[in-house]
Amino acid sequence: RNKIYILSLTVLISGIFSCKKGDDLYISPNAPTKATASTLLSGIEVGTFNNLEGGTTRQASIFMQHNSGVLGQALEPELYAPTESDMDNYWNGLYLNMNNCKILMDQFGSESPYYKGIAEVIMVMNLGVATDMWGDVPYTEALKGTETGENLMPKFDSQQSVLASIQTLLDDAIVNLAKPASSNASVPAGDDFIYNGNPKAWTKLAYTLKARYYSRLSKKGGFDANMMLTYLSKGIASNADNCYAIHGSGGSEGNQWASYLDNRAYVVASQTLIDSLGNMNDPRTPQYFDTTGVGEAVGNPLGDLDPGVSYWGPYVGGLSPGDQLTDPSKHIVLVSYAEAKFLEAEAKVRLNDASAFNTLNDAIKASVQEVTEGADDGSSVANYTALNTSLRTVITEKWKAMFTTPVEAYAAYRITGFPNLKPNPNAKLPYIPKRLPTAQAERVSNPNALTPSLGTPVWYAE
């Protein structure tokens, strides 16, 4: 059964690095023979890159009309009919990685708090995707780490409690990362692909994630947008602090965006996003999408299935004007300064802060500068004033910027209703799905599995 097996540590480590069944787009270096804090950390980071660039990201990207699925299995999310069996790889990848985070925390956390703090932040990055895409998910009974026994039928924790657990994990991570280096038996360095063992950088990421997941509560009683500002004041402060999925130059180490395009090309540009960007009026357009032959991006119209339009562009290592992959090893942003500024702008709008428009413009500029690698400062499209800044404009601009992190756009859309997207008129449902279906293996094997319909909102969007 495709469940969360509690295997021997050697098999677990091997599992981190091996290719997942049915997916040829994963990094597969040689499995180590002995588990150490270092090999575990490298493994859970690679696993996180896989999970946050893979199938769940493509599903959210298509739902959010950043892109369109026109061929093969990408047609299913385009037609609002994602299948249970496709969820198995996504679900298993997240839970295998989280279980290995737990092993790192259990085995090495007491003697090396930096490793534990980083593992807690990485746990949140995976658990956050799981609850964003499925709502209630297993957590308290699902991850046994190095504990004895196993539970193949874990209960599903409420999304409310999962979000509380995310905050607890991040709080503990911040405490661990604040300890002196001398309190660590060993400290991460090159085995940390993201920040090279820098505890201050990880702390900034943790605070930004606290703001991200606190924002999920904006429809709930007791929500205080000032908390978001408090967290963000200690979080990512520039594009230099961005969290990236790091990729090598080897053929098997490229990012999944470029690899998917090279191997399958089932996903193309959506005309919805291109129109919202004003096509070439926005400097991000020729970075997001290829403009081969016509000097502008051409998207798939909503409800159409035209594979003869623009594909992904150089921002994700996609196509150049010569129809060649520009850089398959391109690093992919996972948490950014732009996202932090959009969260700040959202908080200020909710607090009726008159400076919200300045923050919104700063967010757009940060996005453009990151996407263009500093070639454009973004001032041409960052022109909001106090009169036209609202929750709608903040979330819509955030949607434009979250190209490689569409799960964030999907979460904000379900909470706020922005941007105002029209459902695909030819889809099998009259609305954009509000969640993914339960993974088939989980539904079949776990009697505690919940099976809500695609039209049932997740808790934070109720």
How would the blueprint of this fold be written?
Blueprint: H1 9-17, H2 37-53, H3 55-63, E1 67-69, H4 75-78, H5 84-108, H6 113-134, H7 159-177, H8 199-214, H9 225-232, E2 243-245, H10 256-263, E3 267-269, H11 271-277, H12 285-288, E4 332-335, H13 337-350, H14 356-371, H15 391-401, H16 406-416, H17 440-445
Antiparallel strand pairs: 1-3, 2-4
Biggest beta sheet attributes:
2 strands, antiparallel
* Number of helical elements: 17
Indicate the proportion of strand residues. under 5%
The low-pLDDT segments are: 1-33
Spatial extent as radius of gyration: 21 Å
| End-to-end separation | 33 Å
Number of strands: 4
Portion of residues in helices? 40-55%
Strand order of the largest sheet: 1-3
Shape summary:
globular
Structural class: mainly alpha
Mean pLDDT: 91
Please provide the ordered H/E string of secondary-structure elements.
Answer: HHHEHHHHHHEHEHHEHHHHH
